[in-house]
Amino acid sequence: xxxxxxxxxxxxxxxxxxxxxxxxxxxxxxxxxxxxxxxxxxxxxxxxxxxxxxxxxxxxxxxxxxxxxxxxxxxxxxxxxxxxxxxxxxxxxxxxxxxxxxxxxxxxxxxxxxxxxxxxxxxxxxxxxxxxxxxxxxxxxxxxxxxxxxxxxxxxxxxxxxxxxxxxxxxxxxxxxxxxxxxxxxxx
Length: 188
Fold this sequence. Notes:
This protein is globular. The chain is built from five helices and seven strands. The two termini are about 20 Å apart. Strand 4 (about 90-100) and strand 5 (about 105) form a beta hairpin. The chain has a seven-stranded antiparallel beta sheet with strand order 1-2-7-6-5-4-3, with helices on one face. The chain has a single domain (about 20-185), classed as START domain (Alpha-D-Glucose-1,6-Bisphosphate, Chain A, domain 4). It is of the alpha+beta class. The chain has helices at about 30-40, 40-45, 140-165, 170-180, 180-185, and strands at about 15-20, 20-30, 60-65, 90-100, 105, 120-125, 130-135.
């Protein structure tokens, strides 16, 4: 795994831990309860990912409503090849682990049934900072793995910028910077 204590462009890239799984790490300013709130509270989640309150019960369902064009300090429209991602999109999830303020896991897309992938956020205190580890696994196809890689990269960069008090720019401009790089990184 990359060393998150040394924040470089390279260290922010996710690492493929299996053909159907990717893991990201970000070292964020604490306290841990603050970072947890950005994972679970709708008003905070919508600043970097999408709105929707995360329930505090295993087995409970919830929705995330994405509108990536409004994310970041500079709203923008998706490039033509991602035009279908303009506007609001909704995903349905099911909580599989809820251990505040350390672990949150959920089925990523309940509409895909047995093919649902799983997202796990783990928070570990590191002095006055918090190591966030995100693992997205059980993705059914290579296309699915590539589809989430660049998105998670940029969403986590937005979260980091917000928590550090930095200008985050435009989601889509930031996405354009990493678009395509994950395909070269994912083994065939």
